[in-house]
Amino acid sequence: MAVDHAVFWYGCNMTRHGEVIRATTRILELVGMDAAPAGGPASCCGSPKEASARISEGMARRTVTQFNESGRGQVVTWCPSCHMNMQDSMAPVTPTKFETVHVTEALWARRDRLAPLLTQRVEARVLLHAHHGFNGRVAVNDLVPALLRLIPGVTVAEHPYRSPGHMCSSLAAVPGALADAHRATLSAMSETGTGTLCTIFHSCHREAVALERHGIRVRNWIHLLAESLGIEAEDEYKAWRNAADPRAAIGEDRILAAGEVAFARLLEPELRKPPAV
Amino acid sequence: MTLIEHIRAESARLAGLCTACGGCVRACPMTPYAAGVGAADPAAVAFGMRDLLRDGPGTPAALAWVAACTRSGICTPACPEQIDAAFMLRLAQWRAKGALGEAPRIPVKEDTQFSPKVKAFARLTLTEQEQAEWL
Questions:
Q1: Are B2 and A51 in contact (CB < 8 Å)?
Q2: Which residues of chain A make contact with B124, given a CB cutoff of 8 A?
Q3: Which of B33, B134, B135 to mutate to probe the A interface, most A CBs <10 Å?
Q4: What sequence ranges are listed for the domain 4Fe-4S ferredoxin-type (chain B) (predicted)?
Q5: Long-range contacts for A154-159 (Cβ within 8 Å, ≥24 apart)?
Q6: Integer distance in angstroms from the first to the last C-alpha of chain B?
Q7: What is the reported pTM?
Q8: Which of A16, A85, A174, B134 is disulfide-compatible with A37, CB 3.0–4.6 A?
Q9: Cβ within 8 Å, pair A53-B2
Q10: What is the ipTM of this complex?
């Protein structure tokens, strides 16, 4: 099998979901892509500092330069914000030596290799957690269901509801918007009789996992693919977020490794945050 | 080219194509979350947004609308001039946040602990080798 060499640009906030980075990299490898993961602050699109074009440009230029110097001909994106920023503000300012493709496009293009590997049955009737925003660039609202339908046992319900925004992090910044979107999503699940909400993006997943308190399951599309492929991908973030005591769920040894002060100040408030609805 | 030059050039290009008809405002799902926009004339809101792209002050309703943009992108197919209206809003939001060095005209919600938080989560979910190779 011919192997394509790429960078898997997973973005920043995906570090909450290490198992998704790991599983996606493995799935890409299985379909013939040697995709080296890159992300975090050192590979930033610049959006966290978008109130200053000068700072944002510096961060973005460093990332494009790093990808150019990798010698890999493709950058496979995960994050819709990173993907759009690459097209809108990064590549126009710093010329690129690579093609940018979204991970859903990369996997769909290799579906002939992927489908025979999806051997484990996954019993799930799912509603896709879809947004309007990114679908105009990459047809994720069609590609993800098409990939899910390759999994034996998975059925994807049709419903017209689409959340505003490009992913839930943008809604979370507008008072009331995320709660409205979650209420509409739960209504759509009730109307379709679905028990599993399938998220596409990381920021949606981290907000949606708390909806499990409403008696549904929340899984990312990579979790479903990984299960069918027999790849271990335990959703620890979901367990922590829904635990009565996240600190106990994580364990003191791991908290010490992460840094007690950093955990207490930066992570614990998010993990204890009440759900939007 | 710098990002500032890119933002200025694209702002001028798209402002030149925009007729401020208000089609983008009518299509936007976020107007209920933008103070004063629901009661305003959509064309007037679009006019204020276009003014931001032309180095103008905009209007209170336009600034509220730009601030509420979550990149839904529904405005783009709604534009009769076939402008990438979503990108036009993105440019307006950059400018309203003060990206070109001016004082911000809309709230800037910048998390100063963003990078430390990303790294702290990485220490929880990635092995030391993965952190060394992937971050």
A1: no
A2: 18, 236, 250, 254, 257-258, 263, 267
A3: B134
A4: 9-38
A5: A154/A122, A154/A124, A154/A125, A154/A126, A154/A224, A154/A228, A155/A124, A155/A125, A155/A126, A156/A126, A156/A127, A156/A128, A156/A198, A157/A125, A157/A126, A157/A127, A157/A192, A157/A193, A157/A194, A158/A192, A159/A127, A159/A188, A159/A191, A159/A192
A6: 28
A7: 0.96
A8: B134
A9: yes
A10: 0.95
Nearest CA in chain B to A253: B124
Cα A269 from Cα A157, distance rounded (Å): 35
Return the CATH number of the domain spanning residue range A4-109.
3.40.50.1860
How far from the centroid of its chain's Cα atoms is residue A125's Cα? 20
Domain range summary for chain B, segments of one domain joined by +: 3-109
Q: How many cross-chain Cβ pairs, A to B, lie less than 8 Å apart?
A: 165
Q: Are A198 and A219 a contacting pair, CB within 8 Å?
A: yes
Are B108 and A51 inside 8 Å of each other by CB?
A: yes
Contact B120 A266 (CB under 8 A): yes
Residue of B nearest to A84 (CA): B87
B132 exposure class (CB count in 10 Å sphere: 0-12, 13-18, 19+): exposed
pLDDT digits (tens, 9 = 90+) for A90-144: 999 999 999 999 999 999 999 999 999 999 999 999 999 999 999 999 999 999 9
Closest Cβ–Cβ partner in A15, A132, A134 for B121:
A15
In the block, which residue shows the tokens 């109130």?
A51
User: How far separated are the first and last CA of chain A, in Å rounded?
Assistant: 48
What DSSP state is assigned to residue A131? Answer: B
> Nearest-CA neighbor of B90 among A46, A241, A239, A275?
A46
pLDDT tens-digit profile of A15-61? 999 999 999 999 999 999 999 999 999 999 999 999 999 999 999 99
